[in-house]
C-alpha cells in the first residue's frame, strides 16, 4: 500500500526536522513551496498524504491544497499552521478539503499521529474505489458474457454498434463518450427477453418498431433497470432508458423529454440502432442513411450528420 508523504513548508528547518523524525517511518519527500510541491505531485506522485504549512509566500497553504485536491483528489490533505482564525479554518475546509489541522508548535508524535490517521483514511478511500472498480469490471464482463452466450450475433452487432457510437460521440465532443460506448455495448440486452416474432421485428426495424402491447418498451426498461443496479453506471442506464425515444418526442418511454433534452447517448443509440437494422435490410449504407433522413425528424440532425461523417457518407438534400 502506498505510504508516500509530502511535507510542504517554506522553512528549511521544519523540513529538515521532518526528515529526521519521519524518514524511517514513511516514504517521504519535501517541498519548499506550493509550486514545487505541485510539480512533485505530478512527477513523483501519487502521495497518500500531503502536509502543508499555511503561511507560505507566493502560494499559501489553502491555495496549494485547493490545487492539490484538483490534481489528486484521493490524496489526504493536512494543514500545519499557527493559530488559525475561524475564517482561515472555514476557507481551508471549503476550498482545500482539509482532513485535519495540526497547530504549531507540536511534537513529532502529535504530527505523526495525524499523518498516520491520514494514511488510514487514504487506505480506506482507495480500497473502496478499488472494490467498486472490481465490481464494475466484473459486472460488465458478466453482462457481455451473457449476451455472447445467448445471442452471439447480437453480441457481434453490439461490438460494431459500440465502435460506431464511440466515434460519433467523439466527433460530437461528448463529455461522457465512455458511457455512450458502454451503453452501446449493452444496448442489445433489451432484445433477449422478446418473444421470437418480436425479436425478428426488432432485428428488421430497430427501435422504430411499434412493439405491440408495450413489449418493446418493457424490454428496454428491463435492460435499463439491470444496468441501473451496477455501481457507477447510472448514466449508462439513463442512456438506455431513453434510447427508444425519437428526437421529435415519439416512441418510448412516455415522457415529456424530446429534442436536445434527451441524453446525447440516447439520441446516438436511437440513430445507430435503427441505421443498423435498415442497413441489414437494404444492404446499403447510403440507402439506409437516406431512409433515416426521410423519417421526418425522428433523429437528431446533428447526430445524423456525425454518423454520415464517421461512415464516410453524405446526407442527400432535396
Observed structural traits:
Hypothetical protein af1432, elongated, 13 helices, alpha/beta, 8% strand, Rossmann fold, five-stranded parallel β-sheet, 318 residues, single chain
Folded structure, characterized:
It is a single chain. It is built from 13 helices and five strands. 59% of the residues lie in helices and 8% in strands. It has two domains: 4-128, 3-Layer(aba) Sandwich (Rossmann fold); 151-310, Hypothetical protein af1432, CATH 1.10.3210. It has helices at residues 12-22, 34-44, 61-71, 86-96, 108-150, 152-171, 177-186, 196-205, 215-228, 234-241, 264-282, 285-293, 301-310; strands at residues 4-8, 27-31, 49-53, 76-81, 100-103. The relative contact order is 0.08. The chain is of the alpha/beta class.
Q: Characterize the largest beta sheet: strand count, sense, and whether it forms a barrel.
A: 5 strands, parallel
Proportion of residues in helical segments: 55-70%
CATH domain class of the largest domain: Mainly Alpha
Strand adjacency order, main sheet = 2-1-3-4-5
Fourth-level CATH superfamily of the largest domain = Hypothetical protein af1432
Kindly report how far apart the N and C termini lie. 64 Å
DSSP summary, beta strand count: 5
Unreliable stretches covering 5 or more consecutive residues: none
Radius of gyration: 27 Å
- In total, how many domains does the architecture comprise? 2
Could you say which structural class the secondary elements and strand pairing correspond to?
alpha/beta
- What is the fold named in CATH at topology level of the largest domain? Hypothetical protein af1432
Shape-level CATH architecture of the largest domain:
Orthogonal Bundle
Molecular shape: elongated
Mean pLDDT: 84
Strand content: 5-15%
Order of helices and strands: EHEHEHEHEHHHHHHHHH
Amino acid at each position: 500500500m502506498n505510504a508516500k508523504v509530502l511535507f510542504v513548508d517554506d522553512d528549511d528547518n521544519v523540513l529538515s526536522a521532518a526528515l529526521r523524525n519521519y524518514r524511517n517511518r514513511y516514504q517521504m519527500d519535501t517541498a519548499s513551496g506550493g509550486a514545487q510541491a505541485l510539480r512533485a505531485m505530478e512527477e513523483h506522485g501519487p502521495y497518500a498524504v500531503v502536509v502543508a504549512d499555511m503561511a507560505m509566500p507566493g502560494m499559501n497553504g489553502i491555495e496549494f491544497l485547493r490545487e492539490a485536491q484538483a490534481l489528486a483528489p484521493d490524496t489526504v490533505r493536512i494543514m500545519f499552521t499557527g493559530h488559525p482564525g475561524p475564517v482561515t479554518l472555514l476557507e481551508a475546509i471549503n476550498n482545500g478539503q482539509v482532513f485535519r489541522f495540526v497547530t504549531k508548535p507540536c511534537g513529532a508524535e502529535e504530527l505523526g499521529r495525524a499523518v498516520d490517521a491520514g494514511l488510514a483514511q487514504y487506505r480506506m478511500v482507495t480500497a473502496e474505489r478499488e472494490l467498486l472498480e472490481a465490481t464494475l469490471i466484473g459486472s460488465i464482463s458478466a453482462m457481455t458474457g451473457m449476451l455472447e452466450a445467448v445471442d452471439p450475433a447480437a453480441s457481434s452487432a453490439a461490438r460494431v454498434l459500440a465502435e460506431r457510437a464511440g466515434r460519433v460521440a467523439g466527433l460530437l465532443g461528448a463529455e461522457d463518450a465512455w458511457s455512450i460506448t458502454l451503453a452501446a455495448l449493452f444496448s442489445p440486452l433489451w432484445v433477449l427477453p422478446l418473444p421470437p416474432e418480436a425479436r425478428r421485428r426488432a432485428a428488421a426495424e430497430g427501435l422504430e418498431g411499434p412493439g405491440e402491447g408495450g413489449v418493446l418498451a418493457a424490454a428496454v426498461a428491463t435492460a435499463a433497470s439491470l444496468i441501473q443496479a451496477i455501481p457507477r453506471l447510472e448514466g449508462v442506464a439513463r442512456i438506455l432508458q431513453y434510447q427508444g425515444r425519437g428526437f421529435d418526442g415519439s416512441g418510448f418511454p412516455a415522457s415529456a423529454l424530446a429534442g436536445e433534452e434527451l441524453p446525447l447517448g440516447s439520441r446516438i443509440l436511437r440513430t445507430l440502432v435503427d441505421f443498423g437494422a435498415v442497413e441489414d435490410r437494404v444492404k446499403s449504407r447510403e440507402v439506409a442513411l437516406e431512409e433515416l433522413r426521410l423519417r421526418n425528424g425522428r433523429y437528431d440532425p446533428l447526430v445524423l450528420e456525425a454518423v454520415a461523417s464517421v461512415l464516410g457518407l453524405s446526407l442527400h438534400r432535396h
